[in-house]
Structures are given as C-alpha cells and as structure tokens.
Amino acid sequence: MDNTFLGLAKKAGFLEIGDESVGIAARAGKARVILSAADASDGSKRRAAGYARQYGGIHLVIPFTKQELGAVVGRGAPGMVAILDAGIAATYVSKLAEADPDSFSEAAEKLEEEARRVRQRQKEAQQHLRNKRSGKRRTLR
C-alpha cells in the first residue's frame, strides 16, 4: 500500500506526529485514529492503545516501520501518529483494509460510519446557516 496519504494529511494539518503530540490530541478528543509503527516499542504501542481506549479513538498497528513512517511524514522515526479528520482517517484505514481485510476491515467500517455522521452534521449546519440568512423575519406585536 502506498503510504503517501499520510503526507497529504500532514500538509492539510490533520496529522499529529510523536508520542507527546498524539497524547495531547487524544486528550482533546481530536484523534480519530492512532497509528503505531510495526517496530515501535511495546511501551509506545501500549500508550497509544491507552490513549485510544481512554479518549475514544481507534488504535491500529500498521505494517510499516518507524523509518518508513518517518520518511512519509517528514520526521525522524516516530513510533505513532494520529489522524485528526474523520474523513481522512476513514479513507486511509479503508485503503489499509483493502490490503489486509482481516486486520483492518472492522476499524474501516467504524471510521466510515463516523465520517458519514460528521458529513451529515456538517450538512445540517450548512442548511441551518442558509435558513438563518434567508428565513422569515419575525415581527413583534
């Protein structure tokens, strides 16, 4: 699987890189999916899983080394990264699921459902804004 999608997420501002940044994003409730490198230490994987469990994200161990992950995101060798946008997370994990359905298909389904809900809320907010701008004016008696 081509891993350059993470580089695009970084350019868009939807990627946190490294243990400390991922922890801050998870505590803020922004991390949709936390990805650990396959060769990350057991402690790092345990922390990432703890962030996901405690703050409501999904933790996945991806089949890439820290060096490969670092080359894509432009940092040294991060053990974990977090994707902050639901749509980007759903797309990336669905691409992982195409390559390895046994490991990633359940997470891809969860993230796709979350992305669908986010799109629906955005659509409703946009409609509300349109109604607010062009709605009937109330008259006071």
Strand and helix map with partners:
Elements: H1 5-12, E1 15-17, H2 19-27, E2 33-36, H3 42-55, E3 58-61, H4 66-73, E4 80-83, H5 86-99, H6 101-134
Parallel strand pairs: 2-3
Antiparallel strand pairs: 1-4, 2-4
Helix pairs in contact: 2-3, 5-6
Characteristic key phrases:
141 residues; 60s Ribosomal Protein L30, Chain: A; 11% strand
Fold and architecture overview:
This protein is α+β, with helices and mostly antiparallel strands. The chain has a single domain (5-134), classed as Ribosomal protein L30/S12 (60s Ribosomal Protein L30, Chain: A, 2-Layer Sandwich). It is built from six helices and four strands; from the N terminus they run αβαβαβαβαα. β2 (33-36), α3 and β3 (58-61) form a beta-alpha-beta unit. α2 runs parallel beside α3 and α5 packs antiparallel against α6. The protein starts with a helix and ends in a 7-residue tail after the last helix. The model has no long low-confidence stretch (mean pLDDT 89).
Largest sheet: 4 strands, mixed
Q: Name the CATH architecture.
A: 2-Layer Sandwich
> Which strand order does the major sheet show?
1-4-2-3
Tell me the name of the CATH class.
Answer: Alpha Beta
State the order of secondary-structure elements, H for helix, E for strand: HEHEHEHEHH
Helical residue percent? 55-70%
* Strand segment tally: 4
Overall shape: it is elongated
Stretches where pLDDT is under 50 for at least 5 consecutive residues are: none
